[in-house]
Amino acid sequence: MQSVPDSGQARQAQAQGSILKQPMAVWATAFAAVVAFMGIGLVDPILPSIAKGLQASPSQVSLLFTSYFLITAVAMLVTGFVSSRIGGRKTLLLGLALVVVFAGLAGTSDSVGELVGYRAGWGLGNALFVSTSLAVIVGAAAGGSSAAILLYESALGLGMACGPLLGAVLGNASWRYPFYGTAVLMAVGFLMIVGLLKEQPRAAAKVGILDPLKALGHRGLATTATGAFFYNYGFFTVLAFTPFVLNMTPYKSGAVFFAWGVLLALSSVLVAPRLQARFGSATVAAASLLLFAADLAVIAYGSKSVIVTGVIVSGAFIGINNTVFTEMALEVSDSPRPVASAGYNFVRWFAAAAAPFLAPKLEEHFNVHVPFLVATATCVIAAAVMFGARRTLSAVDHHDTEMLNAPRAVPASV
After folding, report:
1. pLDDT tens across 279-307, in order?
2. I need a labelling partner for 403 at 20 to 30 A (CA). Which of 53, 105, 127, 186 fits?
3. What residues contact residue 404 under an 8 Å CB cut-off, 6+ apart?
4. What gap in Å lies between CA 372 and CA 293, rounded to an integer?
5. What gap in Å lies between CA 347 and CA 350, rounded to an integer?
6. Cα gap 7→277, rounded to integer Å
């Protein structure tokens, strides 16, 4: 099957050749996307500082992730409904405005309950922005959807890498400053989009609130979402729980997760497409998930230095899986891409909400090893799901290049 590698390599070469030749509107949206993804890992280095400053337990502080992603998951059912009615530009600006307001309010919190509530509002704004940003980038980008998706994945990786670094630099002075810093950067992104991005064409058909759930009736999309659910549990166990296990200063913790984010970015943009072109998406996902599971098992019983190494190395597996799952979700379904992606994200973000809450609880009831062992098991389950569905998902690796580059709306999936 020589056509699969040839097609994948051609798409990759075309995307890489045009990714830097983009209108200013695309760069403005990409900048805001970087800041939006920074908000996910921003709190990582300062979780112990927040717990100390607000006299809260690790399980209480971990609710910062739970509230954020729980609202993000539910909001996925309404983002398409909103954007198909008011347009992509207004949806972006609404999401950015909500992030500016709630990130700023988060810095004023006097209790962990207030902070958790503000993070929930932040999650709503981020859902509106993230669910629309890739569609807007595709609509305005030069070089076709392959270049746009690659640019979006680059923004995701850069944001995931820089979030912990910003959190460390600002959080070393006060845990409140990273929230204020994010509000300021998002305000800059808001102004850039106001000045540089014109309104995009609206969807030909309005999206109903239940359409994403109906899309999950497709076997391939349901399988992809199920695998992503179990994978994301492992992903967010690393992101939300290991800062408490490491118990480092903001600078040291930020450095660890910055290295993790750099490896995530490189593997998602440079490594994953090559592996997909050669071996196929489902096979790559299954293999990467098994390696991630092995890494989590090592972290479970490792010394502090081993845990640091394991966390950084996990960035490679997470980067590969993020890219592979994104493409599978966008390509496998016969539903419109915005609808399919919303259904996929609705399922997988529930795991991102569950892991930060359950991991500290498992440690409290058992020991520090159990949260990582549970995450290991979920990644093994995800690998089994992907391996078992490789024939169903093989359509992702055989889709027509012309179809891939057609001007369809492509929503964000990260």
Report:
1. 888 899 999 999 999 999 999 999 999 99
2. 127
3. 11, 144, 145, 146, 331
4. 9
5. 6
6. 8
Three-class SS of residue 174?
Answer: coil
8 Å CB contact between 250 and 172? yes
Give the Cα separation of 321 and 264 in Å (integer). 10
pTM assigned to the model: 0.83
How far are the Cα atoms of 25, 79, 135, 149 from residue 197, in angstroms, in the given order? 5, 19, 13, 18
> How far is it, in rounded angstroms, from Cα 78 to Cα 94?
13
Contact status, residue 46 vs residue 250, Cβ threshold 8 Å: yes
> Which domains, ranges and CATH numbers included, belong to the chain?
3-404 (1.20.1250.20)
> Quick one: DSSP state of residue 200?
P
Six-digit token pair at 210? 């239940």
Are 322 and 269 a contacting pair, CB within 8 Å?
no
Instruction: Give the residue carrying structure tokens 């859902």.
Output: 127
Summarised one tens digit per residue, pLDDT across range 168-178 is 888 888 888 88
